[in-house]
Design a protein that fits this description.
With 193 residues, the chain is α+β, with helices and mostly antiparallel strands. The chain contains 5 helices and 9 strands, in the order αββββαββαααβββ. Helix 4 (109-117) packs across helix 5 (128-140). Bound molecules: flavin mononucleotide.
Length: 193
């Protein structure tokens, strides 16, 4: 079987988790707006599917607006204690509503209420009213909230994945996988470090 970069990425995330790395699935997610102005933020990968990567996000946010205007994105994982980095180039889209609901229901209850109470990214005067509302809702609500209509998943379909591994002699291994057409095949080549 030829190597598949997403299976290797899964194995590297699992290795980071086993090594006790904090936030092993957290990753820098880079978007650009319609004018090509870039922005980056950390997100936490929820799934590595057969040909895509998935994380959750409010859909009114800057990252979601950027993706709607320009689907070309990048991801950068770095596990310093393992001497490993993975760079992914991908196209992004909003994923299925059913998956958003499934992943929303998996969140801790406090995190679900937080997504309802706080309009992430909107300017506010003070955190206290949000804290009061969060405390009130968690106290009085009989059931946890359901997935808000404008909260969802972003699904990233990679076109290139580079697995970088540090070597003691500084001749680090750089394996670049490039997707071949839409058939799901990948070519692999080695790059000089
Ligand atoms: C470790 C870590 C994990 C995070 N995970 C997520 C995530 O999975 N989804 C998300 O929308 N924001 C996550 N955030 C918050 C984002 O970094 C960011 O502040 C927020 O999504 C707003 O970004 P935007 O305004 O560029 O869209 C995380 C932050 C940190 C530090």
């Amino acid at each position: 079987m030829p190597a598949h970069p997403l299976r290797e990425l899964e194995a590297w995330i699992a290795a980071a988790r086993e090594a006790g790395v904090a936030h092993p699935a957290s990753v820098a997610f880079v978007t650009a707006d319609a004018e090509g102005r870039p922005s980056a933020r950390t997100v936490t990968l929820k799934r590595v599917d057969s040909e895509s990567l998935v994380f959750t996000s409010a859909l009114w946010t800057r990252k979601a607006r950027d993706v709607a205007a320009n689907p070309h994105v990048a991801l950068l994982f770095h596990w310093p204690s393992l001497g490993r980095q993975v760079h992914v180039t991908a196209t992004a889209r909003v994923g299925p509503r059913a998956l958003a609901e499934e992943l929303f229901d998996e969140r801790e209850e406090l995190h679900r209420w937080q997504a309802v109470v706080s309009r992430q990214g909107e300017p506010i005067e003070d955190l206290e009213p949000l804290r009061d509302r969060l405390a009130h809702l968690t106290r009085v609500a009989e059931t946890p909230p359901t997935c808000p209509p404008d909260w969802g998943v972003l699904e990233l379909v990679p076109s290139a994945v580079e697995l970088w591994e540090e070597a003691p002699d500084r001749l680090h291994e750089r394996r670049l996988f490039v997707r071949e057409g839409d058939a799901g095949g990948w070519t692999e080549r080695l790059l000089a470090p």
